Amino acid sequence: MLKAAMVALVVSAGLSCTQVMANAESAPAHRHPVNVAEIAYQDSYIAKRRFSGRAVAAQRSALAFELPGTVEAVEVESGQQVAAGDVLVSLDSRLLQAQAAEVDAALVENRASLNKNIRDLERQRSLKTKGYSAQQAIDDLTAQGKVLRAQRERLEAQRRAVELRLEKSVLKAPFSGEVVAKSVDVGVTVKEGQPALEIVEIGDTEAVIGIPEVLYSAVSNVDEVTVRGFFGETQATVVSVSQTVNPNTLTHSVRIRFPADVAIADGSIVYMLVDQTINQRGFWLPLSSLLEGYRGTWSVFALNQDNTLEKRSVSPLYQEGGRVFVEGELDDGSQVVINGVHRYAAGQIVQVAEQ
């Protein structure tokens, strides 16, 4: 009796297990939802090229005295901003002022002598009409007048020369800008042509940037280009594009000018952005859709007709932000997994998530 009960229990348990396994096999497998995008082929793409250069002031001058002398006053320091015409450095001009005073005194004396000569000549001519003066006296006074006038011209030239030397004893700002270097101090004796200050213009900044020959037409045919720097992004005016290629860098030099309202320090690094059209057939994909393979190869997961994942090789050509332009073994309109690719495997059956 007991034996028969045990046999019945075993048979019942076996039938239950078989039924559970059958139910498990008949249940549908879970399919992971995936985000996909349809690829769209295009015959070319636009690559944003970036070229660097340095911002430079439109005017930069090393100021020096044309005459030797001793520095009497320095009105500015490095880093100080100045306006056009401001006095920057002065030389001791006492000797020149003494020369000017000497010439002025000689001019006064000459003027008095010339006035006397004119009066004497008029008197002699008046007397001659009355027969009381000889022609010789008139001739002598006429010659003396010519000498005095020549002396006056020479003295006036000397006075202008002294004035010019006095003017050149003072260094003035040729334009509004900033003093970037000072190499003299009060009491220092300077030579002719010795630099005293260096000044750069403020508010009119340019940059010279080299571009490859393939982009010459792209830049030479536009009036403005996009430039980036610490100031952000702005449009700069294309001043000129050299037609010749620099033999050292094999580039064309592009001179650009920044807007006046963009504050750019002299010497700052700036970047010029240029759009280049590349004639290459391919398609755009999110960067997150790529799988890195062996020795630098790349692939993506594509869905076939029954939603099975297949690995397809692609070759990245250009990256821009979070997307990449590739060429690969895919048909136009194919669906590609765009994220979470490391969670899936080739041959896995998935379902397309609701977008």
TrEMBL record:
Pfam families: BSH_CzcB (PF25973). This is RND family efflux transporter MFP subunit. Residues 104-172 form a coiled coil. GO terms for molecular function: efflux transmembrane transporter activity. Belongs to the membrane fusion protein (MFP) (TC 8.A.1) family. Residues 66-199 form the CzcB-like barrel-sandwich hybrid domain. The keyword Coiled coil applies. InterPro entries: BSH_CzcB-like, RND_pump_MFP. Residues 1-22 form the signal peptide. Keywords: Coiled coil, Signal. GO terms for cellular component: efflux pump complex.
